[in-house]
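Hey, I was hoping to borrow your eyes for a little while. I've dropped the whole record in just underneath, so have a look:

——
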Amino acid sequence: MRLYITVETTSRELDAKILLACCAAEAGFDVIIGLEDMVRRLCRFSDPGIFFDKSLHSEYPVLFKQLKKLGYLVAVSDEEGLAGDFDQYCKFGVGEGVADTVDMIFAWGEMHRQLIYKAMPEYAGFVIEAGNPRMDILGAELRLFFNSKVQEIKKEYGDFILVNTRYGFSNNVIGGEEFKKRILRGDLGEKVDYLLDFYDFEEALWNEFLKMTELLSRRYPDRNIILRPHPSESIDRWQTALHALENVKVIREGNVHPWILASDMLIHNGCSTAIEALLLDVPCVCYRPILSEKCDVVLPNLVSYNVYDINGLCSFVESPLIYSTFDKKEGWKRILKKYIFSITGRKSVEIIVDGLIELSRKKTKRNIVVSSSMRCAGYASHIWRVIRYALRKKYKRSEIKLNSKWIPCSLEKFEGIVRGYGFYNSKFNELDVSSAYYDCFRIRKKLR
């Protein structure tokens, strides 16, 4: 059966979802994986199968309904499912109509499953606690995948402090003020007040992290500092603000995991990379100069050492291991276990593939007339897109605006990632890898 896997953010998801795709292909699936928008377009005129998406958000039920009419089954692993607050999850994580369109949901863990049950009680029998493939590649067995990149980073930057930020509202790639205008223009109802408060909270934190980075640069002139903005952030604003500091680099390239592994420590506030640092055994501190019961992101702060002023932060920087003892880390991991099922025991990719195999046995309903007309429309749209692309190329006009979260990937690079997992399963070296569509790739067993 065909399996379609969407990727939104390269640095967050691609490596882990390629691992999932390889495991699914080895289990017999014909896998298409790539940029979410392109996978969705391809689905409209390709052979139906299982559509594996990354969110239960309000914008997706319409898409899911269309795919169901085409004969697809829909499975979701919610990338934002580490939320612990029911009200916020219902406001921003689950859209109306989801329960009518999704066949299987893979929850991060017990807490996520409970949130889904509260939001959609009718899904009691369709949720599987599976963790997330992103957590699989952090374990001792699979983190070897990053070794060469870690050594490359250390060779170029030496010992360094990593600062990860996540200010995608106030420092959005389209500009903070423009993003704020879009919030006000949108039909968001009661969400608007919260979003504006969150915007102001982020902007205040952005300024505090700027001051913090400048102070650390002056206090520790012999230490390198790498600031890595979230993919949804404007990197230019950070680079402009910090360009005069010789020991500070603003870098956003590749997967975040090798950068964490190569660093001496991680500084953050409410960033999910704190969870990854804990699982990678890298000292991590949450700098909290501003507190907000309404806007603080809870889980990453719960599993990090917290400091509330610059003196506390400097104490951590000077002796990180004192504040990241074995007992503390074990306590944080016990908290995390309630949120992420696959920290111990079976890998997430194994659980998900088993679930997809079970789902593939489900019969689908397909209206031949409706699906044929939708497929024709999808193919016509594809042909028009090919023509527009050719015209742009011929007359050297600007390309479609790049998605800041997706980094274009060549077939050679993509296949290199697939083969990079050969140490984990040598059969992955025998998989057939090819291009499938714009920014989409195909992985399957070689035909005999």
